[in-house]
Amino acid sequence: MLSSVWKILNHKVFFVVFFVFLGSVYGTKTDRYFGWTNAKARMGEPILSDGAGYYCHLPQWFIYKTNNFEFLDTIAKTYPKFRFTENVYVVGQQDRPSNKYFTGSAVAMVPFFTIAHLYATHSNGVYPADGYSHPYLLLVSIACVFYFLLGCLGIYFLLRKFSIDRFWIIACLLILGLGTNIGYYTYIYTPYSHIFSFAAIAWLLYIAKCWADRHSLKRFLLFCALFGMTAIIRPTNMMLLVFIPFLFPSTREFLLRLRSLLTVFKWQLLAGLLVFGSFIYFQLWNVHMQTGKWELNTYNTETFEFLGSPKIMEVLFSFRKGFFIFAPVMLLMVPGWIVLFRENRRIFWGSVLFFTLFTYITASWWCWWYGGGLGMRPFIDVFPVLIIPIAFLFQYTKIWAKCIFVVIAATGCWMGQVYEYQMKHNILHYDDMTYEQFKNVFMSKGLRYSWGMHLQYEHLPAGKPVSAKQLEFSMYGKPMPENRYLKLFGDNFSDNPILTIISQPSDSLFHFGAKIKGEVFLYSEDTNPAFFVKYYNNGELYRENPFFIGQFIPEVEKLQPFEIELYPDQQYHQFDSVKIEFAENNTFTGVKNFNIAQLRY
Fold this sequence. Notes:
Helix 2 (12-34) runs antiparallel to helix 7 and helix 16 packs antiparallel against helix 17. By secondary structure, the protein is an alpha+beta fold. It has 2 domains: 18-122 and 125-424, no CATH class; 467-600, Jelly Rolls, CATH 2.60.120. The protein is built from 21 helices and 13 strands. It is 47% helix and 13% strand.
């Protein structure tokens, strides 16, 4: 009975069903996030931040045919609500605007961009053929899901070369797809380079393994083409050369292959170098068209400044972006290396050496946390290497150990999905998490923690105020009843407690401060009320600060005290009035004893 079940689980058809399932899961995720079939449900926008820099090569090459992205000024005005022009310009030495982002990601998106452009061109004006209308955004999203699945398929063929059962390959793909941050960069932060690297490296390793097993011109040229492609997606991908020799049965076999390329197959070697060189030349040409210089390094002002003191522990274990903190399931690599050492010592040494070198280089970059996003994103690129020891762990351990590791993997996948949810709903900070923040929201999916870490909360100065005045909030234009519990219904915004402070001429040289106190009853974990503090000068709003308070309420379904401090570093003469409004944000909220101490410093 068990053998029959195992035969079904390990069959090709079962893998095909799983692969279709995986594609449908990610297709549904991207649809729900970007609202392709339901615009009202849209949570985010495609093409932003680094992704905008990678993408904008395409409209420049095929539509506008300029050298310096002049069209982006028009795009910014045409789509003011989108961030299509973020992170694009880098001023070169000749003060000519240029794009620092490498071209490989854009090359990978060419087929999808072409389809979108043809559709927009023939839409009879429904969609502008400007590179940024709806068809282009949709196809970028599809491209990211496609390359994620393509990378998974490459991993499948690679692991089959090591005789890993299909069922355990499925387990490995679930670990990557659910337990790591790869999903975040597949359907949320698009089109960053990592998902394109992931696919290219997966197929590069598979083709390299095929070529290591048996030489042929076709395999060698494919290897050179894929290596060139990975290089112009992210230059650090060239570190894979360290791992490639370990795919050969022995060092002697590898050296013999190199010798044969230099002697017997020298014309094939020349052809391979030309194929690889064509990708490098394209990158050089693109830079030359923008700057007038033939150079590969487009990150002129950014360096590996920590080569002498790499931030290795921070990269792997910090609560800001640590690889193993935000993808704990990848800790299975450690017991995986133990099994790999026993079963395939050559791959073990290659895996450990590559991981060490990659971590060192990653930890040496000036921005070792790699900006905004979920987790340590550079490791996404090399997941095809890092998953190998985990595959061996599942394949070559006893049944009782398999059960333990499956449970650990399932727990890690659950944690990965919670992290993804938290980042998507602004519960985790996108760039600057701390241990205290991490501990406060650990595995919490309550939306009352949203935005708590993204906003600047003010603090009163240490010195005592010159004077203080107690003021009361009002509702419906009348003072709130004292010591009375009130229920705000969330759909009647006219009942929001509100207070206005008028600046007096006698206070003009003093600094404004305030302390808001009260009690709040949160009816659910998703209740996240806020105070909106608006400053007016000559009757016009010039400054607005939101203060979300859900994260300051220790317990839900219980009346809890809170306190908010206001100190905007503004003197009274800088504003006419300050309007302070409590907003329950469309959910039931209970309030009691709201008051404010107006302070002068």
